[in-house]
Design brief:
The chain is an alpha+beta fold and 260 residues long. Strands 1, 2, 3, 4, 5, 6, 7, 8, 9 and 10 form a 10-stranded mixed sheet that branches. Helix 3 packs antiparallel against helix 4. The longest helix has 14 residues. The protein is 21% helix and 30% strand. A hairpin with an 8-residue loop joins strand 2 and strand 3. Formation of pseudouridine at positions 38, 39 and 40 in the anticodon stem and loop of transfer RNAs.
């Protein structure tokens, strides 16, 4: 008989390139599967439960995200526990911090701000080592007009055209706190091309494939296939457009999650 439950918020980061997303799926390697497999080992089979703050798609990485751990024994030395957890995790997954929370804390319901980064470059074929983190668009892109297009997404709009397989029941009126396309200063590597770019988006919640569909539309804008008016009209309440270009997953990074 188990009495008291203990609750811990654990922040993690991972390279998503070899994972089929966060959520457990039959016969597929996912981030949640590897986390639970590791806990099952270090807790020596004692009961526990983990719950993520949200899902990421296959090949999407996270610089900082979080999950909640529910267990029936208090962790006396959190630093040592985190070190043991990291020692047994695969090398493309790392725990950053652990803190005890109370039973009132709800990782799903608690209001949170998520920041996503889409990392990309264009023009020439890149070093293959770039592939897990960066999307390469081989066509020329007009970065200046893409910057203007990114700003159009800021604020509260109808994002139904930017949600994959949207239905009439979904919540599509959402608010984007900020959306900026700029030269990349966040991530560096000696095999990166000279110029790389980031689309940085902050908001409380996003629909399925929303950011990748937004990025896909910006790429089409940069190619000259659509214009700024097209994006403006797509965000209007009466819009029935369906965006058809989902940007590749491996350029998308969940950069941070803030709990209010």
């Amino acid at each position: 008989m188990f009495n008291k439950r203990y609750y811990y918020l654990i922040k993690i980061q991972y390279l998503g390139y070899r994972f089929h997303g966060w959520q457990k799926q039959p016969k597929l390697k996912t981030v949640h599967l590897m986390i639970d497999r590791t806990f099952n080992f270090i807790l020596d089979g004692k009961p526990f439960k983990t719950l993520g703050s949200g899902r990421t798609d296959a090949m999407v990485s996270a610089n900082e995200t979080a999950f909640e751990l529910f267990i029936y024994e208090k962790i006396e030395d959190e630093t040592a526990f985190l070190a043991l957890f990291n020692h047994n995790l695969p090398q493309d997954l790392r725990a950053l911090a652990i803190e005890e929370v109370d039973a009132e804390f709800n990782i799903i319901q608690n209001s949170k701000i998520k920041e996503y980064v889409y990392l990309f470059t264009f023009g020439n074929k890149c070093h293959p080592f770039c592939a897990p983190l960066m999307t390469t668009i081989l066509d020329d892109l007009d970065i200046e007009i893409m910057k203007q297009g990114a700003q159009l997404f800021e604020g509260t709009h109808n994002f139904k055209p930017y949600c994959f397989r949207a239905t009439d029941q979904g919540l599509y009126r959402r608010t984007i706190e900020s959306c900026e396309l700029t030269e990349n200063t966040l991530f560096t590597a000696n095999f990166f091309p000279k110029k790389t770019y980031t689309l940085i988006i902050k908001g409380k919640g996003f629909g399925r494939n929303q950011i990748r569909l937004m990025m896909g539309t910006l790429i089409k804008l940069g190619r000259g296939e659509v214009d700024l008016t097209y994006i403006e009209n797509s965000l209007k309440p009466e819009s029935t457009d369906v965006m058809d270009f989902v940007a590749p997953a491996s350029g998308l990074i969940l950069n941070s999650v803030e709990f209010e």
